[in-house]
């Protein structure tokens, strides 16, 4: 009997040992999986040399672009600061001169300097607006792209949140079932399994109870594994959701910063436009005052010249036509007709070898364009205010003879109500360096020659006057060598 009881106890011990592991909370496999997963997740992605080189190249390009942008902005800022300082000095000088008569060359020059600085300021402001608008044009697509990406992220966050909520509900049901089993086990006591087995009446009852206990234990273990599995899924989903939320927030912050930058840039453009509009009104007033004062001053001292505030577009248009004409002149090397001798040619041709100089510096020995009138009211290359003046002005009574400074061929006759007014241009040939030499005579009251006509040195070609941009009767004279204006006083005798 005693041997039988001991055998029964050994069987019970073996069976209990086989049942208890089901209740053990040792998830070695799960732990190993978690460790593996963590290691893989924390391992940084491999970078190939090509990837590193490409990333470095893109970074360098971005840095260079940013540096160029900063240099351009600094350059504009320096220009603005310099112009503002010059403008302030000009205004201060004008204020100091206002106590005296405004009909003085000094006051007019100071006013013209202010006008010049205001023109420069307009140019810089318009240049700045163009630069900022280019930056805005780059920024707007980025904002649109980020808004689209932000909408996609918002949808992904919403979907992930809904999925996570569903998983949490499923987990809650599983977790509650597991907690219920734990409570039952706690209420039943630690030794219920052993008691149930030991109180068996016979081996058959013992084995039946053992199978029931093992089934329940297995069910509890599977329930615990399900709890762990669902928890891991939830943690993973939560991490993914957190990443999406963080990315969403970062993109939202970036978008906000871009919109603020756009608003700031647009505000600068709007402010500059207002300054430009105000400056244009002030410029119109200052130009009108300068012209009126200059007309009065030149009338008082008979030192007539040009108004200094002519429209820049008109000046550029006339200059473009003149340069095109000069560049189209045929040189004496291209036209050689020696049998014509010194006869006058009126066939509309640009030049002939006998009527112009051919590779000789003698072409630069010229006479004064208005005989008997040698005083100069405005010289080369600037007016007294500092504004560019491409020739010299000879005040003379209206109707005075204007003569060709050197022999040549008339290449253009223009009658304008602006700029040079009625003007004539004569081609004289080439100097020793093979450069074309052309003279220009402006503001005439009448023109006595025609295009293609040959003229000799000192021949009357027009009558002086005050047409175009002129404060009174005078002759504006220019010498252009290879299209470039030079100082005429060095070649007049």
Give a brief rundown of this model.
With 493 residues, this protein is an alpha+beta fold. It is built from 7 helices and 9 strands; from the N terminus they run αααααααβββββββββ.
Describe the fold and architecture:
- The protein has 493 residues and is α+β, with helices and mostly antiparallel strands.
- Helices cover 58% and strands 11% of the residues.
- It has helices at 2-19, 28-42, 49-97, 105-188, 192-198, 203-301, 312-327, and strands at residues 392-395, 401-403, 408-415, 422-430, 436-447, 454-455, 460-464, 474-481, 484-486.
- Strands 1, 2, 3, 4, 5, 6, 7, 8 and 9 form a nine-stranded antiparallel beta sheet that branches.
- A hairpin with a 5-residue loop joins strand 4 and strand 5.
- Helix 4 runs antiparallel to helix 6 (203-301).
- The model is unreliable at 1-46 and 336-353 (pLDDT under 50).
How many angstroms separate the termini? 156 Å
Which parts are unreliable, with pLDDT below 50 for 5 consecutive residues or more? 1-46, 336-353
Structural class: alpha+beta
What does the radius of gyration come to? 49 Å
The ordered H/E elements are HHHHHHHEEEEEEEEE
Q: What proportion of the residues is helical, as a percent range?
A: 55-70%
Strand content is: 5-15%
Tell me how many strands there are: 9
Shape: elongated
Total helix count?
7
Describe the largest sheet.
Answer: 9 strands, antiparallel
- Average the pLDDT over all residues and give the rounded result: 79
